[in-house]
Specification:
CATH architecture: Sandwich
Low-confidence stretches: 2-20
CATH class: Mainly Beta
Number of helices: 2
Helix content: 10-25%
Shape: globular
Distance between the termini: 71 Å
Number of domains: 1
Structural class: alpha+beta
Number of strands: 10
Oligomer: single chain
Radius of gyration: 21 Å
Length: 161
């Protein structure tokens, strides 16, 4: 009888603890990809680089959108991690909440005013011939792969902010 009770106890613990079968313990929700860079500007004209995922396109105001959670940055504001400079490629993994993001962009801070001195340096597009950004739909527990962004500092995309 003790063996049966113990076996049932073990089965209950396993049933409660294994609700996702053999899936990984930690699930990442977001995007990953590679940023490819060309024609780097002089160091004094590039103060910061961030990937920004906007829920709306065109964004209303980059700072207001970030503060109101309508846009999310990678690396996060306050994070000491930086996107490296003067490289050809940078692989990233950007954790995002499940949602639709209509504009994923590499933003360049070109001047000292953190509130206004930003340009779009590159945007996610499925078809490179398209001038408009492609929408990204994030689902819970899914990592959307190959969200690749080309940045050519001599040929910037449309500037919505």
């Amino acid at each position: 009888m003790k063996k049966i009770v113990f076996s049932l106890f073990i089965l209950c613990v396993l049933a409660v603890g294994c609700d996702k079968g053999l899936s990984p313990i930690t699930e990442v929700t977001g995007i990953n990809g590679t940023i490819s860079f060309e024609n780097w500007p002089p160091p004094d004209s590039l103060l910061d680089l961030r990937i920004v995922a906007f829920r709306q396109f065109p964004p209303q105001n980059i700072v207001t959108d970030i503060l109101s959670q309508q846009a999310i940055t990678y690396p996060a504001l306050g994070d000491s991690t930086r996107i490296p400079r003067n490289i050809q490629n940078f692989d990233f993994q950007f954790t995002l909440p499940p949602d639709t993001f209509r504009y994923v962009v590499v933003a360049q801070q070109y001047g000292p005013n953190i509130l206004t001195d930003w340009l779009a340096a590159g945007q996610y597009v499925i078809n490179p011939a398209d001038s408009l950004p492609s929408t990204v739909i994030i689902k819970q527990g899914r990592l959307l792969k190959d969200v690749n962004i080309n940045v050519d500092f001599h040929h910037l995309p449309i500037q919505p902010f």
